[in-house]
Amino acid sequence: MRVLAAMSGGVDSAVAAALAVDAGHDVTGVHLALSQNRQTLRSGSRGCCSVEDSHDARRVADELGIPFYVWDLADRFTEDVVDDFVAEYAAGRTPNPCLRCNEKIKFTAVLDRALGLGFDAVVTGHHARLDGTELRRSVDAAKDQSYVLGVLTPEQLAAAMFPLGGMTKDRVREIAAERGFGVAAKPDSHDICFIPDGDTRGFLSRRLGSQPGPVVDAATGRQVGEHDGTYGFTVGQRRGLGIAAGDQRPRYVLGIEPVTRTVTVGTADLAGVPAVRTGAPTWTGRAPQLPFAAQVQVRAHGAPVACRVRPDDGGGLLVEFADQQRGVAPGQSAVFYEPDPDRGDRVLGQAAVTAAVEREAGVRR
């Protein structure tokens, strides 16, 4: 097959490209230039898409003897991922930019272009498995990325290759070292790639400006603090609240209201929710018949929990948790997995959380 290897400059995509070559495919490497300031140097494990990353990807391609190109998708990335990220926070939601990048950039813009150029598939260094066209978790649970791939469609999965899903990250580094790749010991990227200093609140403040408002205690209705912008908070947050609640019990963000600029906080006993509502779902395979039982994961690094999924108004879903969950924020994706223990690593699909079902009257979430 003619295969396009997306090469970020990291060890995972380097080994994925190498394995595609070993499998006998006709491989071409491509590095995605996503940053509008690519000359900014990478700092350890923070950031990506720097000029260093491009050079690292090119060196690996040269060692593999495959053609290599750089595709400038910075404007598309800014519009579909960065601007969306800012808009979601401004609206009081908590987006996942990695999921959005996979949806809009790597498996829409890139895959569409690859297929248009006559390639049969795109290979990436994601830690996830494909069983035919069924998406499954990686064997390395600590590195599993199936959550951020849960937005992919059956057509996209049919043209994707994830050769690392059956091995651990340690094995990936071993393969890179055996081949003499200079990226074998390169640190993994962490945090949000377009915020290399890790200061999300500062990034949003520079984009949105100061928007002061009150922090209110849910139990008493009393103002217990002030903030410079609701975009600096996410539901479930405990640290950095800057409040004086009057006792030593920890407070959590329970709700965010950007119109009135109000952040509502409360104690742990108020933080759990029994269910959430979502927008319209997307499915990685045939749509399951509603209602159905599943496991659901609501954060990229969260633990799955048993749930019951029912139809809701407007084409969305009502997701009822077996156990109350904390920190489920609007904007996050609820990714559904098969409930059968023997197939519980299979991804069914996802839907964006729109609201938590109220447990306590008067608490807006």
TrEMBL record:
GO terms for biological process: methylation; tRNA wobble position uridine thiolation. The lineage of its organism: Bacteria, Bacillati, Actinomycetota, Actinomycetes, Geodermatophilales. The active site is at C101, C193. Belongs to the MnmA/TRMU family. It is an enzyme of class 2 (transferase). Residues 143-145 are annotated as: Interaction with tRNA. It comes from Blastococcus tunisiensis. The keyword Cell cycle does not apply. InterPro entries: MnmA-like, MnmA-like_C, MnmA-like_central, MnmA-like_central_sf, Rossmann-like_a/b/a_fold. One of its GO terms (molecular function) is ATP binding. The gene is mnmA. GO terms for cellular component: cytoplasm. Keywords: ATP-binding, Cytoplasm, Disulfide bond, Methyltransferase, Nucleotide-binding, RNA-binding, Transferase, tRNA processing, tRNA-binding. It comes from the Bacteria. Residues 202-266 form the tRNA-specific 2-thiouridylase MnmA-like central domain. Its main location: cytoplasm. ATP binds at A6, M7, S8, G9, G10, V11, D12, S13, L32, G125. Residues 277-352 form the tRNA-specific 2-thiouridylase MnmA-like C-terminal domain. Its EC number is 2.8.1.13. It catalyses: S-sulfanyl-L-cysteinyl-[protein] + uridine(34) in tRNA + AH2 + ATP = 2-thiouridine(34) in tRNA + L-cysteinyl-[protein] + A + AMP + diphosphate + H(+). This is tRNA-specific 2-thiouridylase MnmA. The record marks H126, Q332 as: Interaction with tRNA. It is found in: Cytoplasm. Catalyzes the 2-thiolation of uridine at the wobble position (U34) of tRNA, leading to the formation of s(2)U34. Signal peptide: none annotated.
